[in-house]
Write a structure and sequence with these properties.
- By secondary structure, this protein is mainly beta.
- It has one domain.
- The chain is built from one helix and seven strands; from the N terminus they run E-E-E-E-E-H-E-E.
- Strands 6-5-4-3-2-1-7 form a seven-stranded antiparallel beta sheet.
- The chain starts with 12 loop residues before the first strand and ends with a strand.
Length: 104
């Protein structure tokens, strides 16, 4: 029997099996969460959106995106996804494979 994945908490650290480093949850609802982690070579962040219902994750389906560097940008992204205005990209989505979670 697989483990039931519960909603994320803002500030929680999440490690995915397929990646190095941990993401920090910046915005979270019951179904979706937006998280990012530093990408130092470019002085920016890498982000992902998690869908707990479909058990997938990936970037928003916008061509040039609107940024996920700040908490405010992540909250706006969460609102767009929750409202159905945008969604997780079909082309680059991944199955949700969480290695560990840590609430601080």
């Amino acid at each position: 029997m697989s483990e039931v994945i519960t909603a994320f908490v803002v500030g929680e650290k999440v490690k995915f099996s397929s990646e190095n480093g941990r993401y920090t949850v910046r915005a979270a609802g019951q179904r979706f969460a937006v998280m990012n982690k530093p990408f130092n070579p470019k002085r920016t962040v890498i982000y992902t959106i998690v869908d707990l219902v479909e058990e997938i994750r990936g970037p928003e389906n916008l061509i040039f995106g609107m940024g996920a560097e700040t908490v405010e940008q992540c909250e706006e992204m969460l609102k767009r996804v929750e409202s159905g205005q945008t969604e997780i990209s079909h082309r680059t989505r991944l199955n949700l494979s969480i290695e560990s979670r840590e609430v601080r």
